[in-house]
Design brief:
The protein is an alpha/beta fold. It has 19 helices and 13 strands. Strands 3-2-1-4-5-6-7-8 form an eight-stranded mixed sheet, with helices on both faces. A five-stranded parallel sheet has the order 9-13-12-10-11. The structure holds zinc ion. Zinc ion binds next to α10.
Length: 462
């Protein structure tokens, strides 16, 4: 008897192992085939969705699943049926797109398009909560669709692992009822806006950076579009995104949930609350503010009375930046004022006298820095902060004395990615000879992240 029990337990453990391994294989195959499908025929896929079938009534399972929201007079059975026949396209499956998608799928939206060109990285997970550690390196659109199907298999989730381009935007956006912009770059914002205006689709747009969030609904019932408010893009060097500026994960979480609320109102047949209104969220104070926006502009280039934009354009050219949420690479200096990390390593190896100036803010210097660097944040240089300039002057004097160097002493400027360092070089060049002793200033191309990549792999990346 006891022997039987032991033998049965052993058999059970063996079978469980087999099942686990089969499940793993299945998951891998599903992901692989999913990848292939999406990668091979994105272009056709953008054109080929069958129309959503309208449900005549709710099934018993629907009633059970959605019972807590069906009880609300603001939604009711008709509202629920309206959700089921509505399709929503989410542009960007990141910090905003994840919570937005989660609530739309949970609420029973009919179809959800999930567009993202990027793959999951470890630094995404603090805010992009549909992905997970086991999804690192996988396309975000597929990872999101996989998680969402587990939540509600009745919703048709359509992943698009690709970049939204002017070539496909109209075709794709034309197939959805509501568009949600969860991207983090100017070219995509203008592209999505123009495509929504040209196809007559409401655009629920949000953004989140550092400790602040914003939300508004564009192109809805005679309200303004994005271009009505921002006819020209900001200069690319003034734009900060999450990878440069940082963001607290819960901030896009809150804004993405707000987007879901606005989308659900429109989808269920109600009015959105933020047409021609801007919601501003200050996470520091945990306060919301609402600002009335100016109305639709008669002179707007795309939605005005005599539009000049009647087809999609080159948005990267228009904005002067790439349609990516990754870090931008500015090019402000001529080649001779820049050195590579390899060249800087050679300077260190030769022990050639110089000053290494790190212009990142103190919070980043705390994360990691090169031990021999002098830290003066770019903001202090921009403000010509006397105390900081004095520090630099003293350092230059000290180094010149130490090395008996009568001529110009090189100052190499470094930051995280090599953008701010170029701005700092420009400022120091203006000061050189007047406010500052004459110096040669050069920027280290690619900054500390290039250093971590190419010279010292043990240096932290952030
Ligand atoms: Zn407009």
């Amino acid at each position: 008897m006891e022997q039987d029990l032991i033998s049965l337990k052993e058999q059970l453990a063996k079978k469980e192992k087999e099942i686990a391994s089969l499940k793993e294989n299945l998951a891998r195959l599903q992901t692989d085939s999913g990848n292939n499908n999406v990668l091979i025929d994105t272009q056709e896929k953008a054109a080929e969705l069958p129309p959503l079938k309208e449900k005549p009534s709710l099934s018993n399972k629907d009633i059970m699943r959605y019972s807590r929201q069906l009880l609300l007079p603001e939604l009711g059975v008709q509202g629920q049926l309206n959700l089921a026949k509505t399709s929503v396209l989410i542009v960007g499956c990141g910090g905003l797109g994840c919570p937005l998608a989660q609530y739309l799928v949970a609420a029973g939206i009919g179809r959800l398009g999930l567009l993202d060109y990027d793959v999951v990285e470890l630094s995404n997970l603090h805010r992009q909560v549909l992905h997970g550690e086991d999804r690192e390196g996988q396309p975000k659109a597929l990872s999101a669709a996989q998680s969402l199907r587990r939540l509600n298999s009745a919703v048709d989730c359509v992943p698009y692992h690709m970049q939204l381009t002017p070539e496909i935007a109209l075709q794709l956006i034309g197939q959805y009822d509501i568009i949600a912009d969860c991207s983090d770059n100017a070219p995509t914002r203008y592209l999505v806006n123009d495509a929504c205006v040209l196809s007559g689709k409401p655009l629920v747009s949000a953004s989140a950076l550092r400790m602040e969030g914003q939300l508004t609904v564009y192109n809805y019932a005679g309200g303004p579009c994005y271009r009505c408010l921002y006819p020209v893009p900001p200069p690319p060097e003034t734009v900060t995104n999450c990878s440069d500026g940082g963001v607290l994960g819960v901030v896009p979480g809150i804004m993405g949930c707000f987007q879901a609320l606005e989308v659900l109102k429109i989808a269920s047949g109600k009015q959105p609350s933020y047409r021609q209104q801007l919601l501003m969220f200050d996470a520091q104070e945990a306060r919301f503010r609402t600002i009335k926006l100016r109305p639709k502009q008669a002179g707007c280039a795309v939605c005005g009375e005599a539009p000049t934009i009647t087809a999609l354009q080159d948005y990267e050219g228009f904005c002067g930046s790439a349609a990516t949420d990754k870090c931008r690479r500015l090019c402000l200096l001529p080649e001779e004022q820049r050195i590579s990390v390899q060249e800087y390593k050679a300077i260190l190896d030769k022990e050639a006298p110089h000053i290494l100036l790190d212009v990142r803010p103190p919070v980043e210097v705390d994360i990691c820095h090169l031990p021999f660097s002098l830290n003066i944040p770019l903001a202090s240089l921009e403000d010509r902060k006397a105390q900081h300039l004095q520090q630099l002057k003293e350092k230059i004097k000290e180094r010149k004395q130490q090395t008996d160097q009568a001529t110009d002493l090189p100052v190499y400027v470094i930051c995280k990615l090599g953008n701010d360092s170029q701005k700092a070089v420009q400022i120091l060049q203006k000061m050189s000879g007047a406010e500052l002793e004459s110096v040669i200033v050069k920027d280290i191309r690619g900054g500390l992240m290039a250093w971590a990549h190419k010279i010292d792999q043990s240096f932290p990346q952030y």
